[in-house]
Amino acid sequence: MTTIGHLINGQLVTEQTRSQNVFNPATGEISKQLDLASAKTVEQAIAAAQNAFPAWRNTPPLKRARIMFRFKELLEQHADKICQLIGEEHGKISHDAMGELQRGIENVEYACGAPELLKGEHSKNVGPNIDSWSEFQPLGVVAGITPFNFPVMVPLWMFPMAIVCGNCFVLKPSERDPSSTLYIAQLLQEAGLPDGVMNVVNGDKEAVDALLHDDRVKAVSFVGSTPIAEYIYRTASANGKRCQALGGAKNHAIVMPDADMDNAVNQLLGAAFGSSGERCMALSVAVAVGDAAGDVLVGKMKEAMQKLKVGPCTDSGNDFGPVITRQHQEKVVGYINSAEQQGATIVVDGRHPNVPGHENGFFVGGTLIDHVTPEMTSYQEEIFGPVLQVIRVGTMQEAMDLIDAHEYGNGTCIFTRDGEAARYFSDNIQVGMVGINIPLPVPVAYHSFGGWKRSLFGDLHAYGPDAVRFYTKRKTVTQRWPSAGVREGAEFSMPTMK
Amino acid sequence: MTTIGHLINGQLVTEQTRSQNVFNPATGEISKQLDLASAKTVEQAIAAAQNAFPAWRNTPPLKRARIMFRFKELLEQHADKICQLIGEEHGKISHDAMGELQRGIENVEYACGAPELLKGEHSKNVGPNIDSWSEFQPLGVVAGITPFNFPVMVPLWMFPMAIVCGNCFVLKPSERDPSSTLYIAQLLQEAGLPDGVMNVVNGDKEAVDALLHDDRVKAVSFVGSTPIAEYIYRTASANGKRCQALGGAKNHAIVMPDADMDNAVNQLLGAAFGSSGERCMALSVAVAVGDAAGDVLVGKMKEAMQKLKVGPCTDSGNDFGPVITRQHQEKVVGYINSAEQQGATIVVDGRHPNVPGHENGFFVGGTLIDHVTPEMTSYQEEIFGPVLQVIRVGTMQEAMDLIDAHEYGNGTCIFTRDGEAARYFSDNIQVGMVGINIPLPVPVAYHSFGGWKRSLFGDLHAYGPDAVRFYTKRKTVTQRWPSAGVREGAEFSMPTMK
Amino acid sequence: MTTIGHLINGQLVTEQTRSQNVFNPATGEISKQLDLASAKTVEQAIAAAQNAFPAWRNTPPLKRARIMFRFKELLEQHADKICQLIGEEHGKISHDAMGELQRGIENVEYACGAPELLKGEHSKNVGPNIDSWSEFQPLGVVAGITPFNFPVMVPLWMFPMAIVCGNCFVLKPSERDPSSTLYIAQLLQEAGLPDGVMNVVNGDKEAVDALLHDDRVKAVSFVGSTPIAEYIYRTASANGKRCQALGGAKNHAIVMPDADMDNAVNQLLGAAFGSSGERCMALSVAVAVGDAAGDVLVGKMKEAMQKLKVGPCTDSGNDFGPVITRQHQEKVVGYINSAEQQGATIVVDGRHPNVPGHENGFFVGGTLIDHVTPEMTSYQEEIFGPVLQVIRVGTMQEAMDLIDAHEYGNGTCIFTRDGEAARYFSDNIQVGMVGINIPLPVPVAYHSFGGWKRSLFGDLHAYGPDAVRFYTKRKTVTQRWPSAGVREGAEFSMPTMK
Amino acid sequence: MTTIGHLINGQLVTEQTRSQNVFNPATGEISKQLDLASAKTVEQAIAAAQNAFPAWRNTPPLKRARIMFRFKELLEQHADKICQLIGEEHGKISHDAMGELQRGIENVEYACGAPELLKGEHSKNVGPNIDSWSEFQPLGVVAGITPFNFPVMVPLWMFPMAIVCGNCFVLKPSERDPSSTLYIAQLLQEAGLPDGVMNVVNGDKEAVDALLHDDRVKAVSFVGSTPIAEYIYRTASANGKRCQALGGAKNHAIVMPDADMDNAVNQLLGAAFGSSGERCMALSVAVAVGDAAGDVLVGKMKEAMQKLKVGPCTDSGNDFGPVITRQHQEKVVGYINSAEQQGATIVVDGRHPNVPGHENGFFVGGTLIDHVTPEMTSYQEEIFGPVLQVIRVGTMQEAMDLIDAHEYGNGTCIFTRDGEAARYFSDNIQVGMVGINIPLPVPVAYHSFGGWKRSLFGDLHAYGPDAVRFYTKRKTVTQRWPSAGVREGAEFSMPTMK
C-alpha cells in the first residue's frame, strides 16, 4: 500500500515512525497510508525554508511570478490527475473537483501579478529634498494549515501568494486527503521553484504545534473549524507570529417575496448540496420572508431535489459524493435526527441514500428541513453536510436579526429584485461576504476572502489584496542627501573626514 | 488642587474614588490630581461609544472628514495652550512640544482625506453580468492606550483616523501627563463631533484591563514599552480583538567614513538628546565604521555638546527638559554608571546637571559614552534618556550585524554619501523604519509608522495607509440581477404607480 | 462704476484699453465694467506664473496642501460675500449659490490630500539590485478657461488641484460674471500662496488665443459649449499642449413604470429648473417608458410646478433666478416656440413670467413640454434654460437608443426600483455620468467629472483622481548602484578614475 | 515570392492591387512582397473590429486575461520562429531579437493582470445612502501604428493591453519588417481570441490615413519619428480621437568623474551600438564632466570597441547587424561625415565595415566621435545608427543644461556613485525616463514608457498603468434607492411569485 510522505527541500521523504489510514469515502475502504511527521521532520522543513529564503527574497518579483505562470500551465495540463486524486480521497465528483481546481488556479493567476501588487508608495519631497517610500518585504518562513474540504483550492489560496511575495513556505495539508495537495506542490517544484522554497509536511497535532512554536515561522494561515482556528490564532499570536485563522460558518440566504423564485431554487440547490455541503460557504439556511414565499420555496425545492443524484466520484453524472468519514456521516445524520426530534419537518430525507454497489460509502442524501427554529441544535451548529434548513420569518428585518445573532459571519445572500432591499442588506448585515442573488458569494481571486465574527480570527482576509499585505512587512525609508558633493566639484579630494 | 477627570459621552466627569499625583518634572512638585477610572467608569465610556456608533457609522465619510478639518483649525488656534499643558506635565521645551503637536496635526490632515482613503475596489463582470466590490466598514468601538512621551502626538496617531473611518473611540492616556490629551479631546468635541464618538478615561491597569476584556471593544492600539506591548497584544488577541502594540527600541546610526561628518553630528545632536531622549525613535547608539570615523565623530560631538542647554520648559532657549519622573531619572543615571563600571568611557557626563532654581527637577544632562560594547547593560536595554553611546566597528557589515542582533527593530539610519551603501543598508537591515542621512526616520503621516521584531506586535503599522485597514473590516459584495424584470416589460402591469 | 481687472503676480491690475459691460440679470441693468486683457497682459500673467514655478515646484506637497487647508477656511468665512457676488452677476438664488460654493469647496478639500494623491509607484528589484519608481511632476504653467454658469465651482474644479500638484495657474473666467471668481483668487492669495502661482486674466477671445498659442502654457482646462470646446481642444492639441475641454449636454432621465414617482417628480423639479436650467448637468429631457408612466409623470409634474417661484436672487424664497443675458432669454423662448410650432404640447408655459419690479430682468419661467419627438429642434439642441421636455417611448431599450443617438453623452439617469434595470442601464448607456434615481449625477470631488461623445474632448476627466494625472507628467526612474564602493572599503582611495 | 497580406476578422487576406518590396538588410536583396492595403481594406478591418466589439466588451476581464496567458505560452513556444522572422527582415541578431521578444512578452504578462488593473473606485455613502463608483469601460475600436525597429515589442506594448481592456484592435505594422508582427497576431488568434478582435493591415500612408479619419476608430497609439508623430497626433486629435504618439530621441548619458568607469563603458557599449543604434532609447551622446573623465571614457571606449562584431543575424556571435535600408545606411554615414567636416574627431570609424560575404548588406560599423559640440548637425538630429558621440563639459550643471536644451526628452542617464548627484539629476532633468547607472532606462512593463518634450505627444504614456487609462473611458455611477419598498412590506402583495 502506498505511503504518502513529505516534500522537504525538493525531496520526497518519509519518516516511517507513525502513520494513519487514508480512506476512499465512496467505498469506505482504506486506500493509502499517511506518514505522520514528527516535530523533528517539521523542523527540517522549516530549516530548508529558512535556508532557501535569502536567495529567494532577492530574486526579482518578475522572476518569481514567472514560476507561477509556469505553475498555472502545469496545473492545467495535469487537471485530470489532480481531480482524480481529489475524488479518490475526498469523494468529490469530477466536475466539482474541476471547479475547485479552477478557483485555485485563479489564485495562481493573481499571484502572477506580483510585480504590480508589490509596488510601494513613493513620495518626493516629504520635506525639502527629502524623499520617502515604502517597501513590502517578505516575512521569511511562513506556514499554512489547510482543511480536507478543499485539498487543492485552500492551499492555493495561500502558498502561491506567499511565495511570490518572496517568502518560503511550509504547508501542512489535511490528513484526510493529502495526495492532491502533495501533487500540486510537486508541480510547483517542476515549474522551476528552487528547492526549499515550498515544503509540505503531512501530520497531525504534533506537526501543527511544531509550526506554531518555532521562532523561525513568522506567519501562519489556517482554514478549518472555529475551535481549532481560535487555538491556532491564540497560540500563534502569543508566540509573536502573524496569524489569520478562518473557522466555521452558518450561511443564510434570505428569500424575499419578490425574488425570482425559480432562479433562487436553482441557485440554492448547488449552494446547499454541492460538495455534500462540506464547504465553509455552503448555504445551509434559507430564511423565507413571509409564509407565502416559504411555501413556494419549499414546494419548488422539494420538486427540484427529486433529480439530485448522490454517488461515487467515478460517475460524473452524480451531483455530489460521500462525506469525508464514517464519523462525519454519523454526525450529519445526528443533526437531522435532532431537528426532527426538536419539531422540524423533514421534507426531503437523505438519511438513507441508495447508492448501489457503495453500501459502505459515507453517503448522506440531500435533505430539506422546514419549520426550523433558532433554538434547534441543527440551527445553532455547523452541520457541514448536504442539509438545507428553512426558517420562516415575517419581515426582512427579522431575517437580518437572525443572521446577526448567529456566532458566525462568513457568507450570506439575499434573493430579491429590489435595489433598495439589496443595498440595505449588504450595508448592514454583519457578515463578511455578501451575495445579492448569489448564494455562494466567494470573492474572486482578485478580491479577498474573509468572514466576520467567529468565522475569522485576524486583521487581514485570505488571498487577493489582503494576502499581499499579510505576507509582507512594511519598511519605510526616508532619504536625504546632505551636500552637493561630486555635483558641485568641491569634494573631488575625498576621502571625506573633515 | 485641580482634579483631572474623564470625557464620557461629551461630558467631563470624575469618579473620586482613587486618584494619583501628577508632577511638574521641572520642579519635582505635585501639581494636580488624576482621577483613576474604575472598570465601571470604563464600561460607561464603552457604552457611550457603542451607543454613538450606529449614527456615526452612517454619517457620510465626507461629513466625518469635515469635523477633522475643523479639529485641525482648533488645534492650530490653541497650539500655545496645548504646548503649555505638555510642558507643565511632561517637561518638554515649547519648541519641541510644538514639533510634537505639528506631527500630530499631520495625522489629522491625513484623516481629512477619508473619502479618498475609504474607497473600495469595484469589479465589473467578475462573471457574466456579475459585479463585485469591497467596502471597508468601521469596526465599532475601538480603544487607544498611549504613553507619556508624546501625550498629544501618539493619541493623534490613533483617534482621528479611527473616528474618521466611522468608529467610536475610548482613549486611555498616560497617567503621567494627561492634561494635554484630555484638552485636545475636548477640542475635537468642540469641532462638532457628536457626543460619545470620542471618550477619554484616565486610569491605571484597572482601566486598561477593562478595555482589554470588554467584548464591545473591537480593536486596541497601544504604544509603550515592549513588555506591556506584549501583554496587551496577547490579551487582546486572546479576547478576539484586533491589536497593534508598539514597544521599545534601540535605534542605531551607522556613521560611514565618507559621511558628511558635520551634518551627521548636527543631526545626531537633536536625535539623541531632543526631548531628553524619551522618544521611541531617539537615536541612542552611533556605530562608527573605522576608528578614524569614530575619533572624528566623538571629537566633534563632544565639542558640539558644550552648547547643549538643559532646563525647564518655561525657558524656550533650552534644548531639552527633565525626564518624566524621579524614578526614571535614577534609572537613566544607573545606566550611565553601569556603562562606566563595565569599561566604557564617559566622554560627556550628564549625571550632575546644573539647573539653577530647579534643583529638585528630574534633570539629566546630555551624556556621550564612547567605546561601548554589545555586552554592556547600557547597550542591551533601552535607556530612554539623553544618552548617546558610540560603538566602533571595522566594517559596515559588522555594523549591520550588530543592529540585526538586537531584539528591537524600530528605527535606524546610515550616514553616507554613497548610493550603493545606502541601498544595501536600507534593503537588508531588519528594521522597520530606515533613514538615509536622516537620524529620526519617523514616516510622514501619509506613510505608516512601525518597527520590526520586538518593537511592534501586530500585522499593520500605525497611522497612514495601514491605519485605514486596521480601523476597518473588509466586506465583499457579489451581485447579480437574475432576470430582466421591468426592463423587458414582463411586469408592466405591476401596481406601482402611486 | 467699478472696473474689474486682473490678478497678476499677486497684484490687481487694469489695462484700461478695452472693456465690456457686466449686467445684473435680475434687473437688466449694467452694474460694472470689465477690463479686457490684451495678449500682452496675458503674457505678463504667463510670465509671472513661469517665474513662480521653480520655487513652487520644489515646495513640499504637504506645504502646498496647507495653503489649500487655509483657503478652505477663507472660502467658508467669506461664503456670504461670494454668494452675493455670484447672485449680482449670475442671478443665482443664494441657496443655489451656496450649493455651488459648497461643491467647489469639496474640490479644495480633495486638493488638501495632495501628499497622498501624488504618491508614485516604487518597485524594488525590477532586476537584480535594480529599483524603479515613478514620480508625478508638475507641468509648469497651466491655464483654465471657465464658463458663466458656475463662476466659482468650475474654477475650483481646476486651479486648486493644478496648484497643489505644483503648477502655476492662469485663469480666464467668464466675462459675464467675473467678480466672484476674481474674489476667490484673492482669497487664495490671502491664504498664503506665493505671488505669481495663481493669476487671473479677464478678457475675450484675444485672451483665450494668447493662452492657446503661448509655448509656456503646458495645459489647458476648459468648460463651455461644444463648438468652443472643440476649437480649444484642436488648437491646444495642435500647439502641443495637454487639453481637456468639456462641452454641452442633453441629459435624459428615463422614468420606468416601477419608479417611485413622487420621488422622481421631486428630483426632476430641482434637476430641470434649478439655476434656470443653466447647468451642463441639468436634466432637460424626461423619457417616460409607457404612456401610463408618461401620464402620471406629466400630471404630477404640472401640479408640482405650480409652486415654482422665479425671481431675483435677493429673495431667498425664490427657486431660481433669471437667465444670464437678454440674448439668452430670447434664445430659450425661441426653443419653446419652436417646440410648439413643431407639434409638442406646452403643458406649463414659462415664456411670460411675472416678476413684479423686475420687468426688465432676463427671466424665463419653468416650462414643461410634453409629446416632444426626436426630430424637434428643441430636442436636438441644448436649450440651457428652465425647460423640461417629455418624450414617451414604449420600452426601456427605445429610451436607451434615444439617449445613445444624441450627440452628447454628459449625464443621464434612470428612475426605477429594479436592480436589474439599473445595472443594465448603467452598464450599457453611452454616457459618462450615470444616476440611478439621482437626476444630477455630478460625481463627488473624490471621483472625476466627465461626459462622453461630444461632451468632452480629451483623455482625462475633470477634478478628482483624473485631475492629478492631468496636471502632472510621469517620470520613471530606474536605478542601479554598480559596485560596493565605500561599503566594501575597496575604494577608500577615491577619486575613482581607474 | 511570398506575398504578405492582412489579418482581418480572423482570416489572412491579400488585396493584390499595390505592393512593396521587403528586403533582407544583411544581403540587400528583396525577399518578399508586401500587399499594401487600400482604404477599403482598412475599413473592412475596422468593420470587423466594430462587429466583434459588443461581445468582447461583455466578456469578463478574467476570460479576456486568460487568452493573454495562453498567448504568452505561444510566444514562448514559437520564440525561435519569431526571432528568425525579425532577423530576416530587420537584421537584428538573434540574442537581441530574443531580448526584444522578452520585453514584449512582459507586456503580455502585465495584461494578464487585467482583472486587478481594471478595478474601479467604490465609495459608500457619498451622501446619505448614496453610493458612487467608477467603471473603466473599453473605447471600442482602437488602432496601433508601429515602427520597423521593434516589429514585435512595440506592437506588444499596445494590443495586449488594449484588447484585455475590452477593445478591438487594428494594427498597422511597419512596412519594412511586417512578417514577425503578422505572425504574433496569428498566435494571438490561435490563443483563442474571437475573430475580429485583433486585425492587422499592412500598408502605407493610405492605410494610416484611413485609420485616422474613420469615426469608428476611437484611439490611436503611434511610435515612430517626431514629424510623423506630430502629424498623427494633430490629425487624430482634430478628428476627436484619443491619441498617444511617441517620436524621436537624443539620449544623453552624463559620465561623472566618480563613476565606476569600467561599468560605464560596458553599459554604454550595449546602449549605443545594440540593434545598430536603431532604438528610440539608444544612448547616442555621452557627456563627460571634466576632461579627465572624458579622456578615460574615450580611451576605454575605443579599446572596448575593438571587440565589437557587426554582421548578419545568422551568426549569433555578432553584436549587431545591418541598419534597415540602403537609404538609412547612407544617412547614418552622412551624419558621420558631417561631424568630421564640422570639426569632431572620429575616434573609431564604422563607415566602411568589413562583413565578408555580405558586401551588399546595409552595414555600418560602431563609430565613436569625440569633441562633438552642440552646434553640429550630428548632435542636433537623431542619427538612429551605431554612433556614439562624446561631448565634454566642465560641470554637471552644464551637462544638464545641454540635455534640457535639446528638443527631445525621451531617456537619459547619469553614471555616478554619489547619491546626491543622482537625486538632483533625476529630480530636475526634463526627460521622461531617467537612469541612474542604467543607460537604457526603459521602464519595466508594470511601469509606463514615455518621453517628455517632443518625444511624446499625448497625456498618457505607453504600456503599464497609463495604458489601462488610455484604453478605457471612465464612467461614474451614482446610486440611491429611494424608498424601502419590498423591505418594509408595503409591497408584499406584488404578483411576483412565479
Note down, in words, how this protein is organized.
The structure is a homotetramer of 498-residue chains. Helix content of chain A is 39%, strand content 23%. With 498 residues, the first copy, chain A, is of the alpha/beta class. Chain A has a seven-stranded mixed β-sheet, sandwiched between helices. Chain A has a six-stranded mixed β-sheet with strand order 10-9-8-11-12-22, with helices on both faces. The first copy, chain A, has a three-stranded mixed β-sheet with strand order 1-5-4, covered by helices on one side. The longest helix of chain A is centred in the first third of the chain and has 20 residues, at 39-58. The relative contact order of chain A is 0.14. Mean pLDDT of chain A is 96; it is low at 490-498. Chains in contact: A-B, A-C, A-D, B-C, B-D, C-D. Chains A and B meet through strand 6, strand 7, helix 9, helix 15 and strand 20 of A and strand 6, strand 7, helix 9, helix 10 and helix 11 of B. Strand 20 of chain C pairs parallel with strand 23 (472-480) of chain D, so a sheet runs across the interface.
